Amino acid sequence: MLFIITGPSGSGKSSIVKMVLKDLPGTEFSVSHTTRPRRGTEVNGKDYFFIDRATFQKMIRLNGLAEWAEVHGHLYGTSRKEINKKNRSGELLLDIDVQGAAQIKNSYKEAVFVFIMPPSLQVLRERLQKRGENDADEIARRLKTAREEIKEFEHFDFIIVNDNLGSAVRELSAIITSRRCGLEQQREKALSILRTFAEEE
Fold first, then answer.
1. SS3 content of the chain, % helix, strand, coil (to 5)
2. Cα separation of 124 and 90, whole Å?
């Protein structure tokens, strides 16, 4: 099953996803492609596939991306190959921006969409400032974008307000676990159990 995790820059979606992947067996991470520079300890092929703009644009032309968007001057996208390769084996988590989530919704209607919301604009501003990665102008651009993105929450299946990281991680884990118990996910197992009852008649 496909889980789309999104929210404004600074909402904490990446931190939440990383902790869920660590704590909840059976979950996998879909590695996105990006043209932005690698940060700190990020690893190519693990955090992102870091590629140049020409390579990214070629993937667009060949319809190799399930979603893509230009965010804060850099291109981000998820390859169809990455989704199809991993989505057969369990829960696949995509950590993507709000624009990308809208595109995924058109192609993968069975996916579960989760919106990570900061508790307030002020908290979001403080988080972006504490990162120390962006200057004042870039933070202002991200906050402007967040003002628009936050309005999209009504188009998602679940909302998590990230005012406490531990609580947010537990809530996302609960959403994933509950979907594992859904009728379609458990149908074959239930039918197998049902056959054992028929054998006793």
1. 50, 20, 30
2. 32
Task: Output the domain CATH number for residue 116.
Answer: 3.40.50.300
Cβ count within 10 A of residue 112: 20
> Would 26 be classed as within a structural domain?
yes
Residue 162: burial class (beta carbons within 10 Å; 0-12, 13-18, 19+): buried
Structural domains in the chain (count): 1
Strand positions, DSSP E, 152-192: 158-161
- The C-alpha atoms of residue 92 and residue 168 are separated, in whole angstroms, by 18
Round to whole Å and give the CA distance between 178 and 24: 13
Six-digit token pair at 163? 């005012």
Full-model pTM: 0.85
CB 86 within 8 A of CB 92: yes
* Per-residue pLDDT reduced to its tens digit, 120-157: 999 999 999 988 777 899 899 999 999 999 999 999 99
| Domain extent for 162 | 2-30+91-199
pLDDT at residue 56 is higher than 70: yes
What is the token pair recorded at 154? 């009504």
Q: Tokens 């056959």 — which residue?
A: 195
